[in-house]
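Researcher: I'm preparing a figure for a lab meeting and need a structural model of a single chain. I don't have an experimental structure, so a prediction will have to do for now. The sequence is pasted below. Please return the structure as tokens so I can convert it later.
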Amino acid sequence: MCLAAAMVGVLVFVRKRSLLGEALSHATYPGVTFAIILTGFFSLESALPFLILVGAFLSALAGFWIIDRLEKKIKVASDAALGAVLSLFFGIGVTIASCAQHSYAHLYRQMQTYLYGQAATMTDIHILIYGSLALAVLLFILLFYRHILALSFDPQFAHTNGSISRFLESVIFLIIVLSLVIGVRCVGVILMSAMLIAPAAAARQFTNRLSTLFLLAGFFGSLSAFLGLYGSFELSNRLGGHYSLPTGPAIVLVSGGIALFALFFAPRRGLVSRYVRKTKFRGVCVQENLLKVLWRLSQKEQNHIGFKEISQYLGYSSLYLRWLLHRLCRQQALIKWGKAYQLTPQGVKKGARIVRLHRLWEVYLVNSLGLKVERVHKSAEEMEHILTPELERKLTELLDNPRQDPHDQPIPTQDEALHVF
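Model: Understood. Here is the structure written out token by token.
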């Protein structure tokens, strides 16, 4: 079930309709409670599982129809329509369940099972049901992958195919509803939407390809199910029966933990990884600014530059500035002579290149964009660190290889500012 739900969740996630799963899962509850009441009134206990599936499906279908009408006919915002259906249908379901608490007390527990989930009481028939669902979802994705790709990322192009796009829209909606209706028996109405979105959100942090997204989401969903089931069983045994961790919430907790881990530690998109990259880039910018200052001072025929003179141009603390100078010495861009410093030939070229990029960008802003001379320095300070050799070449060609910047300062030539990074 978690494998199927995770792959279906990708279809919802990439189309930015994550709240749809939450709304429709809650919209199934009135159908569940009404089916249980009908079962008690007509004494149809043997047909209870079938009636619950039918009731949940029709209730979710009604919820989707109302959402569609609110968005397209009344022009209600999508999030408002989803929120309204979610709260309305769930409120109706809770009301029906409360009314049935005394009239059909023996069936009330069944309602709570579908609200919170109860995987421990599932039987072999559920293996067939969930296996069939997972197989159907997998076959649909394999057969219509290219159409799903177009429909998810270029819907206008996909709709040019006419009937096929409408057919796929209907099938995708049907699969979403079936997954929600069938899955509520395992993790419950409240938690089912988490099994749709959490694996897809975790997988998205590791890839930009839809095919890989399906594979990773399916893996994370299956892993969540296994670890949640195993953890629930083992923890309940170790606690000696005094406390127990329900299976459905355990699965969702594991899935949420995987998603949080991915959000923080994914190699490219994780918050920690991005923070590390930003920190490294800021360090590179600081070193380049220091090289630029050292290059300018060296142009004043100062072979040996004192520490106090360097610190006058930069607002860094003495300890931090000494650490930066030490790093430049280790990179062989700088040589220390007692209490003074001198740029190496390599350091001169590095510093000249930063100055060249800075002044080229100033010329571009003034000549091509018409900015005032006194307003271009700050922008050039930012751009000088991210201009690639390709952009440098294009700027040089566009500006006809200028010799001076707007402040009448010479621009180092390409030979003087050889790209050595």
